[in-house]
Amino acid sequence: MNFFDYVFEHSKGLDKEFIVGGREPLSYAELYRDSNSLASWLQDEFGQGRNILLVSPNSVFFITSYLGILKSGNACVPLNYTIEQGNLEYILEQTESPLVFCQERLRAQYAFGEGVRVLSEADLPGIVAARGDSERSLDSSFPEDRLAEIIFTSGSTGVPKGVMLTHGNLIANTASIVSYLKLTGDDRMCVVLPFFYCYGLSLLHTHLRVGGSLVLNNTFIFLGSVINDLKKHRCTGFAGVPSHFQVLLKKSKSFKETVFPDLRYVTQAGGKLHSVFIRDFIEAFPQIDFYVMYGQTEATARLSYLDPQWLPEKIGSIGKGIPGVDLRVVDPSGNPVPDGQEGELIARGGNIMAGYYKDAGETSKTLKSGWLHTGDLAYRDEDGFFYIVGRQKEIIKVGGKRISPKEIEEVILSVPEVVDCTIRGIEDEMLGEALEATIVSNNNLDPEALKEKILEYCSGKLSSFKIPQKFLLQDNLTVSLTGKKKI
């Protein structure tokens, strides 16, 4: 079964809205009809097995184009809609895309080159109207190992890497997430994550599958609008990366005092949210389930989750593998290590990518004997719960001593005035590397007074070699469109 038919298997006949609120409501019937019509047109115009770019914020245009591309048997390449011209040109050349779906207001910002056709939301109504009921004419009999999408991520050399995900990958990860989150058609998700990001796409996939609904909020910077959407539209779920929860808990004056009678759960992925924020949330909202999750684009989206029942007992853990995923901690030779010992976290399951697009070398380094090598250092405790220590390349050596930045960040974030902390290593003639802390505070506290307070707190919690030697103070947390910190 292709992924389009999978997500609409039980929901295509629903008489309800999929996108709720805002200026662009969208019903299941409209979405199913329009994306099928677009898929039929794409097959006639471009055939199958081509790569088609999609450049747009979250919108009806994005969703319809995305699903139409997948149904047509072509591969969708969703891009950050603020992508640099140079990276766009590189991806166009690599993918040999004959077509780009681009939101009208963004078209003037980019040069797509000769021979590349560009369509916007203004073109879709004409295509849909001309095709009519075209579902029967579609060839959608392709296998699950057909390439469904290529998601480009930042490569270690600065050149984007294309993660190849198949229809089978999307089906496997969607089924797992629906299972452990216990999603149903009654669920309504407030979406602040962009769909060009695998975490955001997983929200689209899972709620289509169960017949739920989405509320699109593209303005997280205005905290009041998010809080209002959660209440007004009776959202049952909210998904965010660490910065979203940090800002809501420490920047918003009203969030923790607001009652959300319909919100049954929140999910957090996209990096480690320090325990101080998790404790803060579950103390403020004991009735809302908090799911800590871990994943990578190379795993379609998700690899593990911590069931809320294990908080706060297992706080700091990424939990256990999601249904259908095996996790192991191994040494450099690939041999499993004993519980409690650090090693690299590896994963195996139906959601693991097919490889990196046109990059056999990187693929062979990352996929070995069917296992995804995540590059994350971790250990497993005696109860089978996994804990991430840090990225292999993030470990800092100060005077020959190995230091994980996460441990220090966790301590500094316990200072009430601190919204965010980033620890990195800087060159030092004596120590090899020294520690630098970049601090974002939530008020206008005198910088020197704040620094002294942090140092005093650290001295009681950390060994002397783990206390930062240099401090940089900032007023605001700088994040990307996915909500991840810009470092």
The strand line-up of the biggest sheet is 10-9-11-12-13-14-15
Number of strands: 26
Query: For the report, how would you describe the main beta sheet?
Result: 7 strands, mixed
- CATH fold-level label of the largest domain: Rossmann fold
Strand content: 25-35%
Domain AMP-dependent synthetase/ligase: 15-357
Keywords: Ligase
Domain AMP-binding enzyme C-terminal: 407-484
Family: Belongs to the ATP-dependent AMP-binding enzyme family.
Helices, strands, pairings?
Elements: H1 3-7, E1 17-19, E2 26-27, H2 28-46, E3 51-55, H3 60-71, E4 75-79, H4 85-95, E5 99-102, E6 117-119, H5 124-131, E7 147-153, E8 161-166, H6 167-181, E9 188-191, H7 198-210, E10 213-216, H8 223-232, E11 237-240, H9 242-250, E12 265-268, H10 275-284, E13 289-294, E14 304-306, E15 320-321, E16 325-330, E17 343-349, E18 355-356, H11 360-366, E19 367-368, E20 371-380, E21 386-391, E22 396-398, E23 401-403, H12 405-412, E24 418-428, E25 432-441, H13 447-459, E26 470-474
Parallel strand pairs: 3-4, 3-5, 5-6, 9-10, 9-11, 11-12, 12-13, 25-26
Antiparallel strand pairs: 1-2, 7-8, 8-18, 13-14, 14-15, 16-17, 17-20, 19-20, 20-21, 22-23, 24-25
Helix pairs in contact: 2-3, 2-5, 6-7
Family: Belongs to the ATP-dependent AMP-binding enzyme family.
Protein name: AMP-binding protein
Domain AMP-dependent synthetase/ligase: 15-357
